[in-house]
Every structure is written in structure tokens, then in C-alpha cells.
Structure to design on (867 residues):
RNA sequence: GCCGGGAUGGCGGAAUUGGUAGACGCGCCGGACUCAAAAUCCGGUGUCAGAGAUGAUGUGAGGGUUCGAGUCCCUCUCCCGGCACCA
């Protein structure tokens, strides 16, 4: 063993040894229990960022811990390789997205390897390769045939200048990011996955996922949003024809309070009313402005205009005016809503703004209704009952709904309906760098799925998009084809799939990544699935995780799998954040400065007083601490840390700075602290070995100090086992190891048994820490136990005999305030304790001669004297 | 706007089931070593008062439950994530 710690040499050598031994290749045949540990695969954006390092270190720690606990571990890795950034990079650099993506993958794969992750690289999956996406296309055709995929129109962001569809991300303040043109809503035909057909199962199964964070399950429940309501119609006659305006409501009990209806700008009633009404036509045109993002629609000013058309209230027969509202969307629900201003806050404000009638039909006892101002109780369905509602008066929420739904049904104008907030999943994208949708449009046969023997539909890779429309739609060699059914001239679909589709099933493909005769190999898939531990960013709590759960059920129902859910345990990791610094330019714009180029100035107590740019020594402004991003220039390149300190230090810092689920603040000083600790560990082992070889303690008489050290060691083993296995709080596991080594540092005995105890502590510490810092631990282990590999060692087990304590310290409180402590034998009975505590000096002083009201004894913890 | 989460010293965080608030690390202060610096090692470090023993106070704000609240309940403020075409 060398005297000083040189991470560079150690890490490359140890990684080479793992490679040579094929140490992390997972076998499908094992008599150990399996443990499939999966981290969300990266988008190959160029180089690894800190979020990746954090994600993959967490996965590696859990994988290595479970390996030590006797599991057959599989930890795969792959590339979520289709996506928008590749097209942007292509346009900026005039490089085809494919070339850019593949070169990024090569670079990032090397970066991942330098982190020392125990990955089975033989299972690598890349989603932009035909051998992957052909199975996605195959599944698409099966689902199309089953009716689980259908076509309908839906609104998208349209850039009228670039003549292209924009992602929500590409709409900035209502304008196209490249053209600057005002964005419009436009309805286009798209393919949809019928996810709502699985809404009930997706919702109900959440209760069978105890390994998922409660907050994620709650978010998914609310997203799916099952509600029990009433779908009903307002009949009307227009142009001599009878028709019905359908709406859905969860508040059918307020139906007698409807004073108007609102429809979307694209609703047929609005279109009809706009004929011969230029003002309304202009308003409908105005409603098209802006994007389709829900956050924008929900926060914009609610505007409306009357259509002049009336419909008939289905129960009262009253005339109800129909308005066009900019907040009603055609694509969602019926594209029309009933409005009850008295009992819906949004309707209330709309009615006030346009002077529409407000009719109270719900009363809460003891409250007074006023149409001047909105009050919380107006919307209270728990405490209210019907008023001004004729035969429904005095009914509560449930009774009213039942009665009203019954009456609507009797008139064939509606009835109860289960409604989901969840909408079907539109997957068509008018982009190039994605998986081609395997459909052929035939003038005679319609939409025909591409037959199995013609799959995959290969995406040409040597294309540079120009930002205007879809490149595939301009390539006759791609879209010209013949109909598989009739053989006539036909046109291939040029839209590609949402990249969420690829990431919805990659976890299953890892079980049999090279399978060529099916999407999955049945045996391999059923051996490895479900994933035992899934790890990824909290930002994926809803969409990705819901889509993957949906796909798992789809694959199950076409006979590819037996399980119901893809991920048994889920860990949602927090963001990596860093301080921001900037200077204001003359034009008022902020110039963001990277934290690596800044020195922070502190006062005598260490409080920051300012910051300067290292290059010129002049002050910079300290901004907030935010998620690492290009726009704030506060990203720290993990490669620089690995180069300077080694992967073990980077991993140690990341795991130590915060528990996995919280956001993690980057700190250069913290990284140095982590490095210092590894150096101290190294030196402790080196100094110990200098005294000559010794085996770990097994038996023999021990001093009080040695006994105390062994007690701490075995308590630490217990604690860290729990931290890794149950709590997944690696920061506290590291802290406990540090405390243990601090205690070893203070242990100065050098008798033969004392040296054996020191050996035991060092061996255990290295094993305990090895999931987090595997390279340095492997190296020290081999020095402590020549000829053996740490990789083959089991996780330490606590020795029950070392954990026996005969004396404990009890805290003494008076009225809940700490006043002292007491050392007593462990099994001291309550009466003796009470006597002891009453004789305690501090207690007598507090009681000042008075008698205590009562004494609370918490076993092994404290005694509280209530005066 | 809607859904979910968070707030503890100068900083990151710990306190696992309502029972010693601030473990561990960073920073800072003092000391040792050094011609000096760096590195390393030792000691101190929530705030206020006190020479000290000690006392008071303290977990975003306000209220409540309890012998006892960072932890449970109610009201509020600010910050962060998601909102269906970023991944």
C-alpha cells in the first residue's frame, strides 16, 4: 500500500479488474434472489451533468449493497436517443441528428465508465436504432388492430411564419422561439393511445404500490382524476333542425342555477353563430391566439362573447344563452360547459364581468348569500342543500345528484357518467428525429398498419432538418409506397412518435436486449420484471411513470408479460442546484457568470459579504441558488471534479451532501471535504498496516475503551444496513462511518487484542463504505486482506454480543425542560428511577421543596418531572 | 389557476415511532508545526446575558393539542417541481 492516496491510478486499475472479471454481467440463471436496479436512462445531450452523476451513483450504491446482501443484481444502461435537442443541434451545426447523437453517446459512455458504475454494458439499448424501435412499431400495429390506437384531431401550437408545429417549450411569451411570430392554436389529425381505457386500472393499482412515494401516488391519482358526474344535454333548434348541446358536470346539484353555457371557439355552435356576425368572428379569431399549454390557459384573462343563440334548460325549459369562452378547449371533454355563477368561482367572476345573472341554488345554514362578492361556502358541496330548485329543494349533494340524474335520464337528456381528467395520449409529432409511425395511407383502404414482414419502417439517418415542417414529408423516397392491402399507390405516414413512447418500455427490453424474434423474450422478461428499484428525477413523477405503467399493461395484454406493474420500488431523486452570479450589462440584461469563475468574500464569521470575478477581481452580484442550467450558467461539469479528485470523491460528495430525495446544493468546499475524508481513511489504514499484519478481533478480554469501540462499530453496522436497505439515506450512512473513524482515531491502545479490534473496525468501515466509494475501498481491502477481493465480500453483520449494554444514560426533564442526566443500570425499575430523580440536585432545585404532580418515565430515554 | 413538495446555526444537513434540537461535514475563530505559506494536527463555534457555573431563548409566521412538538392539527407567507409537444 502506498503512503498517499492517488485516486487516478487506483480507479483506472480497479475498473480494469472489474472489466476483466466481467464482474457486473448479470446472468438470467441464478439461485440467488434477483434484484433489478434501474436508473432512468439519459438523453444523450452531449456530456453528463450533475443530475446524471447523482442518479447513477444512487443506483450503483443500491446495486452494490444488494450484491453484498446476496442478490443476483442487474444494473443496465441505455440511451433515450430520439428527441428535439438533436434537431436543434443539427440546425445549429449542420450535422445530421443521428451523427450528433451517436457521437454524444460514445463520449457519455466513457464518462459513465469513469464513474465506476457496476453496469452490465452487454445489455446496452439505444432507442434510435431500428433493432429497438422496430418492436415499438410492431406493438403499434397490434394496438391499432385492437382499437387501442385511433385517429382524431387535436390542437397544437402553430407558428404561422415558420409554418411548423411548436413544442410548448418552443413557445416563449406566446411567440415562436425562432420566428418571433404570435403562436396560434391549430387542430391537426393525430394518433392517440387509448390510455383512458386503462384509467381505472392505472388508478386502482396505485394502492398496490407501497414501494412508491406517497406524493407520487397522490399526484398520479389527481392526474387521472376519476370523478363521478353527470353528462347531459341542452336541446335547441337552429335553422329548423333539432340538436343538443352536451356538457359534463360534477355539480349536477347546481343545475337549477345554470344561467348560461360557454363553448370553445372551435365549437360548431360558435362557427355557426359567427356567420353574419363579424364581431363574433373576430373574437373567435382572437381566441386562436396563444399556445395550448394548460398553465397559460388557466392563468390568462377569461374572456367571452355571446353567440346570440339560446338553448333550452333540460329541466326548467328556460332559455339559456350560449357564449363563446376563450377558456373552453374543444379538444377536452365536450368542448362546452354549463355555467353556474352562484356556485363556481370562475363562472362567478365571468358573470360579474359580463353582467350575467347569478342565481343561488345552494344554501349553507347560517350563511347569507350575496351576489356582490364570492364567498368560499358558495362552492361547498358537503354542507349545502338545494334552494330555489323546485322539487329538489332541501336535498343534499348526493340526493340532488341522484334525483337530477334520474330526471335527465327519464327525458333521455343525459345521466350519470364516470369522468376522468386523464386524456388520451396523442403521440403524433411532426418531427424528423423520432420513431416513424408504421401506417400507410391508402386512398381506397384508408389507414393500413405496416405488416410485420415490412417492419421496421427505417428512419433515414443522413438528414438535416431546416426548422420548417417535417423533413420526411419532403422526401418522396420515404413516403412513396404501395398499399399492403390492395397494392395501389399509397403514402406513408410522415409523423413520428412522441419520444415518451420509447422510454415507456425500455426497462423491459433490458431483460432481453438482443432478442430478434420478438419485442421481449418471455422467460427473460418474466425473470427480471418487475424492476425492483427504479430511480429518477421527481420531474417524471407523472408523465413518464404513468406512460410506462400504461405500456406495461399493454404488453401484458398482448401476452408479452405476466406482471401488472413495471416498478416495485421508486426513488424520486431531487435536483442538483448551485448558486448563481451575474453582472448587469448596459442594456439591463444579466450576464450570468459560472460559479467556478467566482470567489466569494466572507466576513470574520464566515458570512458571505460579496463575490468577485477571479479574472478581474471586480464584484459580481450574488443571485439565488437554482437548478443547474445553461440559461443561468451555474452548471458545474462533473468531468472536472472526476479529473481533479477522482470518481470516489465525486460519488462521496453527492451522496453525503443531501438525502437522495431532496435537492442537492453544489459546493466546491464540500467536495474538498469529501476528498479529505478519503485521504484520512487511507492514512488510517496505512498507519494501522505499518504496525504489521493482524487478523480481525474474534474473542478475548477487552478494555473498557475497546469494548466501547466495538459497541459503536456494531451499532454502526446495524444503522448503516438500515440506511442502505430501508431508509435509503446514504448521507447518514456516511456520517456514521465518519463518526466511527473519528472514534478509531481517538483509540490509542496498541495491545494485540486492541490491534485486532482496530483491524475489525477498518475492515468493516471499508465494507460499509464500499457501495459509495468502491475503488478506494477495493484497494484498502486488498491491503488489509491480501489475496482477497472486496467485490466477493458479504455485507457486515452486527455481532449481538458486542451490542450488550449494562448501563445507559437517562435524560432528566422538569416540566419538559432538560435539567440533567443520570447513568443507571439498564433494567432499573420505575420506582427506583423515580426515587433517584427526586434526589437529583437539579430536580430538587427546580421543585424548590414542592411535590411533583407526576413523573413520566420513557423507558431507556428520559424521565420528566411535572411540577 | 390547478396538483405535489419544501422552509432547522454563517452554509449543506442530522434528529428513524411525539421524548437530549443542531450529529456529520463545510465555513469561521484560536493554537501547534513552519523562516514563511500551503497541507496536516489539536481546541472552540445557534443567539442573548454572564469572567464562569449557569440562565433565558431558539426549527418560515401566527394559533392549538400534549407532561413534552422540528415532528401532530388549524390559518398564513415565501420558495421549488409538474401541468399532457423539453426530457
Amino acid at each position: 500500500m502506498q503512503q498517499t492516496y492517488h485516486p487516478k491510478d487506483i480507479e483506472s486499475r480497479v475498473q480494469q479488474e472489474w472489466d476483466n472479471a466481467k464482474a457486473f454481467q448479470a446472468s438470467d440463471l441464478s439461485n440467488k434472489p434477483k434484484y433489478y436496479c434501474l436508473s432512468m436512462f439519459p438523453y444523450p445531450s452531449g456530456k453528463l451533468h450533475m443530475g446524471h452523476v447523482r442518479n447513477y451513483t444512487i443506483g450503483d450504491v443500491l446495486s452494490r449493497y444488494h450484491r453484498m446482501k446476496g442478490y443476483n443484481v442487474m444494473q443496465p444502461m441505455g440511451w433515450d436517443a430520439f428527441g428535439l435537442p438533436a434537431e436543434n443541434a443539427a440546425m445549429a451545426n449542420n450535422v445530421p441528428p443521428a451523427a450528433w447523437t451517436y457521437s454524444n453517446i460514445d463520449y457519455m459512455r466513457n464518462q459513465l465508465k469513469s464513474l465506476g458504475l457496476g453496469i452490465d454494458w452487454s445489455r446496452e439499448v439505444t432507442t434510435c436504432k431500428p433493432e429497438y424501435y422496430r418492436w415499438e412499431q410492431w406493438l403499434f400495429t397490434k394496438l391499432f388492430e385492437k382499437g387501442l390506437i385511433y385517429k382524431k384531431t387535436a390542437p397544437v401550437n402553430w407558428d404561422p411564419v415558420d409554418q411548423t408545429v411548436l413544442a410548448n417549450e418552443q413557445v416563449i411569451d406566446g411567440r415562436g422561439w425562432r420566428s418571433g411570430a404570435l403562436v396560434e392554436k391549430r387542430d391537426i389529425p393525430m394518433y392517440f393511445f387509448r390510455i383512458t381505457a386503462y384509467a381505472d386500472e392505472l388508478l386502482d393499482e396505485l394502492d398496490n404500490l407501497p414501494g412508491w412515494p406517497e406524493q407520487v401516488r397522490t399526484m398520479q391519482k389527481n392526474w387521472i382524476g376519476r370523478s363521478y358526474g353527470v353528462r347531459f344535454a341542452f336541446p335547441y333548434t337552429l335553422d329548423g333542425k333539432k340538436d343538443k348541446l352536451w356538457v359534463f358536470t360534477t355539480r349536477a346539484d347546481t343545475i337549477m342555477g345554470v344561467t348560461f353555457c360557454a363553448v370553445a371557439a372551435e365549437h360548431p355552435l360558435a362557427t355557426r353563430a359567427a356567420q353574419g356576425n363579424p364581431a363574433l368572428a373576430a373574437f373567435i379569431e382572437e381566441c386562436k391566439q396563444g399556445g395550448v399549454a394548460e398553465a397559460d390557459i388557466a392563468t390568462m384573462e377569461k374572456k367571452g362573447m355571446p353567440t346570440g343563440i339560446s338553448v333550452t334548460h333540460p329541466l326548467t325549459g328556460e332559455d339559456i344563452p350560449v357564449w363563446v369562452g376563450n377558456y373552453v378547449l374543444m379538444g377536452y371533454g365536450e368542448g362546452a360547459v354549463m355555467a353556474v355563477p352562484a356556485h363556481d368561482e370562475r363562472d362567478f367572476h365571468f358573470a360579474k364581468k359580463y353582467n350575467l345573472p347569478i342565481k343561488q341554488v345552494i344554501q349553507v345554514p347560517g350563511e347569507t348569500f350575496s351576489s356582490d362578492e364570492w364567498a368560499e361556502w358558495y362552492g361547498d358541496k358537503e354542507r349545502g342543500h338545494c334552494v330555489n330548485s323546485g322539487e329538489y329543494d332541501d336535498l343534499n349533494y348526493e340526493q340532488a345528484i341522484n334525483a337530477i340524474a334520474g330526471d335527465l335520464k327519464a327525458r333521455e337528456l343525459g345521466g350519470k357518467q364516470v369522468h376522468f381528467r386523464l386524456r388520451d395520449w396523442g403521440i403524433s409529432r411532426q418531427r424528423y428525429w423520432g420513431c416513424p409511425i408504421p401506417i400507410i395511407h391508402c386512398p381506397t383502404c384508408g389507414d393500413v398498419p405496416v405488416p410485420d414482414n415490412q417492419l421496421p419502417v427505417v428512419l433515414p439517418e443522413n438528414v438535416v432538418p431546416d426548422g420548417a415542417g417535417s423533413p420526411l414529408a419532403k422526401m418522396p423516397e420515404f413516403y412513396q409506397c404501395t398499399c399492403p392491402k390492395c397494392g395501389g399507390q399509397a403514402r406513408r405516414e410522415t409523423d413520428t412518435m412522441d419520444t415518451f413512447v420509447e422510454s415507456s418500455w425500455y426497462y423491459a427490453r433490458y431483460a432481453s436486449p438482443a432478442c430478434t424474434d420478438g419485442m421481449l423474450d418471455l422467460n427473460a422478461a418474466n425473470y427480471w420484471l418487475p424492476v425492483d428499484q427504479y430511480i429518477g428525477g421527481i420531474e417524471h413523477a407523472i408523465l413518464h411513470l404513468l406512460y410506462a405503467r400504461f405500456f406495461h399493461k399493454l404488453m401484458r395484454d398482448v401476452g408479452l408479460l405476466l406482471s401488472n406493474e413495471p416498478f416495485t420500488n421508486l426513488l424520486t431523486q431531487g435536483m442538483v442546484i448551485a448558486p448563481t452570479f451575474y453582472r448587469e450589462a448596459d442594456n439591463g440584461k444579466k450576464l450570468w457568470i459560472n460559479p467556478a469563475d467566482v470567489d466569494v468574500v466572507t466576513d470574520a464569521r464566515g458570512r458571505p459579504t460579496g463575490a468577485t470575478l477571479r479574472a478581474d477581481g471586480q464584484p459580481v452580484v450574488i443571485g439565488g441558488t437554482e437548478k443547474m442550467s445553461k440559461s443561468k450558467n451555474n452548471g458545474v461539469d462533473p468531468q472536472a471534479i472526476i479529473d481533479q479528485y477522482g470518481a470516489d470523491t465525486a460519488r462521496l460528495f453527492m451522496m453525503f451532501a443531501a438525502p437522495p430525495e431532496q435537492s442537492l446544493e453544489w459546493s466546491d468546499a464540500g467536495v474538498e471535504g469529501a476528498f479529505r475524508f478519503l485521504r484520512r481513511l487511507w492514512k488510517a489504514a496505512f498507519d494501522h498496516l505499518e504496525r504489521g499484519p493482524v487478523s480481525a478481533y474474534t474473542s478475548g478480554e477487552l478494555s473498557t475503551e475497546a469494548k466501547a469501540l466495538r459497541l459503536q462499530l456494531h451499532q454502526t453496522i446495524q444503522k448503516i444496513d438500515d440506511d442502505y436497505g430501508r431508509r435509503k439515506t446514504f448521507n447518514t450512512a456516511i456520517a456514521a462511518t465518519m463518526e466511527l473513524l473519528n472514534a478509531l482515531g481517538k483509540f490509542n491502545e496498541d495491545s494485540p487484542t486492541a490491534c485486532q479490534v482496530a483491524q475489525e473496525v477498518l475492515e468493516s468501515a471499508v465494507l460499509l463504505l464500499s457501495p459509495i466509494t468502491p475503488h478506494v475501498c477495493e484497494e484498502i481491502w486488498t491491503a488489509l486482506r491480501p489475496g482477497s477481493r472486496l467485490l466477493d465480500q458479504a455485507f457486515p453483520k452486527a455481532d449481538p454480543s458486542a451490542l450488550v449494554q449494562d448501563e445507559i444514560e437517562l435524560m432528566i426533564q422538569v416540566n419538559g425542560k432538560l435539567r440533567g442526566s443520570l447513568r443507571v443500570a439498564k433494567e432499573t425499575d420505575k420506582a427506583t428511577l423515580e426515587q433517584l430523580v427526586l434526589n437529583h440536585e437539579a430536580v430538587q432545585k427546580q421543585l424548590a421543596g414542592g411535590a411533583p404532580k407526576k413523573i413520566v418515565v420513557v423507558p431507556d430515554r428520559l424521565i420528566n418531572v411535572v411540577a
